[in-house]
């Protein structure tokens, strides 16, 4: 008769205390606090298309054709059709798009999945 020995697996936990020096010119801030501070700076600021392109890292064609002109999103964004909107659409050739910065950032943060899918 063969005996089977079970090995007890012992979970080991190691704790390391380390010190990471942070240069005087830098600070560590929680993400939520950083985004709150950023939105306060953006309050009342208007962006142009290039600002939104820098935020989203998409092509101009994607931003305009696939997002801004897509009826699904346009109805939510256009300030002329939605009081909660944040985009002033061009009124004629050569007229620029204008974006309320704080709401633009918030909208794209909250709708990231639905826009990309």
From TrEMBL:
Pfam families: DUF771. This is DUF771 domain-containing protein. It comes from the Bacteria. It comes from Streptococcus minor.
